[in-house]
Amino acid sequence: MTVATTVRDRMARRGSALAPALAVVAAAVVGSALVARGAVGQRPLDWLGYALLAAGGTALIALRRSPFGVLAFTVAAGFVYDVLDYPGGFYLVAVYAAVFAAVALGRSLRIVVAVAVAIFALFLIADVPVPRGHVVDAVGSAFFIGWMALSVVAGELWRVQRARLVETERRAVEAERLRIARELHDVLAHSIATIKVQAGVAAHLLDRQPEHARSALLAIDEASKNALRELRGTLGVLRQVDEDAPRAPTPSLAHLDDLVAGVPLQVDVSVTGEARPLPAPVDLAAYRIVQESLTNVARHAGPAAATLSVTYGPHDLVIQIDDDGRGAPGGASPAGEPGEPGGTGLVGMRERARAAGGELHAGPRAEGGFRVRARLPLDSPP
């Protein structure tokens, strides 16, 4: 954070505190001036009275730094105003605002309530021996207690609402971080797995059949380019820069043929039903599930072939990937199930399916190999 940013933040906080303080000062001064016009038998509102009203409201600017210190100052200013028998009860507006702010800023509710009771007792005791204050009678006491209770309740409601908003924002940030992590994992894992397999093929053929190694090297070059494009696109969204830079196509089942062609293994694809545009969350989840499944086959299944079936139903999309290899790495059972082992790739696929409102099952097949099956709804929000 730069010095300029810090200065701007401080100025913004001061500006946000200044407006409520000026509003309280205006309410106290104008209200007291109006009451003073019809007051009989009380001290006329002079420069000292106005100064006390202005001082109590102005002190609210420092509430964030010292809520109880400001509360004590506003009470002192109001107490002097009351004892000097200036007219009206608007001098207590600053006290109510300070009580509200103390609760809203997260100070202990019990302490604030105890302080509020002490404030009422202070004014009551001061007014009883000299029956000229504003809290001495039943009506004045009722108003005082009512406004003080309203200030405490309003402050607590404000604090609870702010806490909920902060928690909502925190969860949104965590969800976005998880989404970005899944995107980066899917892009990099798929591309690196392809590069690794093709590099092994090229190393094997380089001495014996150098002319055939060329295709493997070209596949490595293409996979690395695709990885860089997708990675740059993801980072560009985060930084909001390089708007003119070339971006990779949005991952979609419309590019399924390109995805399958870039996988270093044999994949038989079958599509059932009428292919049609899908909701964006479902389309992205389906593409990433297929990508991660084929990547896992290439990395862990050994010499294997895979079958991919995509079924467009009236209400959902079903994707199934089967391979005839040696199954999940280390004999792992379906990832994501409580208490069972599995790789982060399978966990990510399960999270993608759930985020799109669907479900995913993964595990070894009875006849050998591994199966991933996902069902994603098309007519309900995730």
Key attributes of the depicted protein:
382 residues; alpha+beta; Heat Shock Protein 90; five-stranded mixed beta sheet; 10 helices; disordered N terminus
Strand content: 5-15%
**Main β sheet profile:** 5 strands, mixed
Distance between the termini: 37 Å
Low-confidence segments, given as residue ranges, are 1-7, 241-246, 330-342
Shape from CA axes?
rod-shaped
Could you walk me through the main structural features you see in this protein, from its secondary elements to its overall organization?
The protein has 382 residues and is of the alpha+beta class. Among the domains are: 10-136, no CATH class; 254-382, Heat Shock Protein 90. It is 61% helix and 10% strand. A five-stranded mixed beta sheet has the order 1-2-3-5-4, with helices on one face. Strand 2 and strand 3 form a beta hairpin.
